[in-house]
Amino acid sequence: xxxxxVGSGGREHAIAYCVAKNDKVTEMYCLPGNAGxxxxxxxxxxxxxxxxxxxxxxxxxxxxxxxxxxDDPLVGGxxxxxxxxxxxxxxxxxxxxxxxxxxxxxxxxxxxxNIPTAGYENFTxxxxxLAYLETAKFPIVLxxxxxxxxxxxxxxxxxxxxxxxxxxxxxxxxxxxxxxxMVIEEFMTGREVSVLSFVDGKTIRTMTSAQDHKRAxxxxxxxxxxxxxxxxxxxxxxxxxxEFCEKYVYQATVDAMxxxxxxxxxxxxxxxxxxxxxxxxxxxxxxxxxxxxxxCLPRMxxxxxxxxxxxxxxxxxQVELEFEDNAAVCVVLASAGYPLDYEKGLEIxxxxxxxxxxGYYCFHAGTAFKDGKLVTNGGRVLGITAKGKDLKEARANxxxxxxxxxxxxxxxxxxxxxxxxxx
Length: 423
Fold this sequence. Notes:
Strand content: 25-35%
Low-confidence stretches: none
Shape: globular
Number of strands: 22
CATH class of the largest domain: Alpha Beta
Distance between the termini: 44 Å
CATH architecture of the largest domain: 2-Layer Sandwich
Largest sheet: 9 strands, antiparallel
Number of helices: 12
Radius of gyration: 21 Å
């Protein structure tokens, strides 16, 4: 089997790590990949949005399975285009990837099918949004409708901040066309939990729970990022919460998409908020989370290729997902200044230490080879992941392992998984 992965982050490294375990896989390619993925796959300098080049490469290499890891190509319709030329592809088609591609669509879907979520209104006219804010309760949340690299969400404490947010999103177009439409949403308080799932259009199989840390600074301060670390499982995701979600959220979402003529095959990532009024859906993503994949996939006992093929074939009802009875924590090592200005090209050393210890992983995100040396090539550089018998041990192991990886201007949060101590 020849496998092609589209993407270049820590998520795609975790996918490649799992794919490499399958004996059927004889060749693996990653477009464009990174220095860590190069251990398992041939990295090809084709960007994730260069659809024509991706399709030509898939045909030339006679790819048997393509896994699209990133949100942009999914929302842009890469799956449809690959399938049109006969390439077996894992991920939602364009009309289903809208579940992540448009927050207004997903909120309207939840309202229509009674899937619990925060109260909201959608706006395409900034003047109407500003008028609405005059009567709103604060704090309040503003969300750019489209994809914005996980950064298009503003939490506004008062009317002045909210007006500035409308200016930023809809007028100044800081997030580009993602801000053509905007969702204004009730602010929810509570614990956040992420639950990733495999879907074959009809059947859904949820993975182990996780919790991400989006803010750049300790104590959830600073700017939103693509994720500074995560842990799995979440001690706040109780059996009671799981049973509620199975009844009112998970299958309900899959059925709603089918009813809308948008059959979803691939990964649905449920961002949940555990509020005082019960569980509510914060957001949907249409792919593995990053860095959630780095803590969920190493704990999965099933072969990833087998599960993916069941999703494509519509036979997921014959699969039972199994996860190790342990825990994992991922701490992201970033370049100082991320998510704004940061330096690239800094040499990375010490990673050979990971080969000496079982249950420790170094997933590459922003890395490259330059003049024969491993160097930084992005804001989020490495995802240092470790397992443990429980969350506290996994957290201690992960932070110990962050000391092995060395590069100038290394930055990390020191409180990833601190909520574990409160559970």
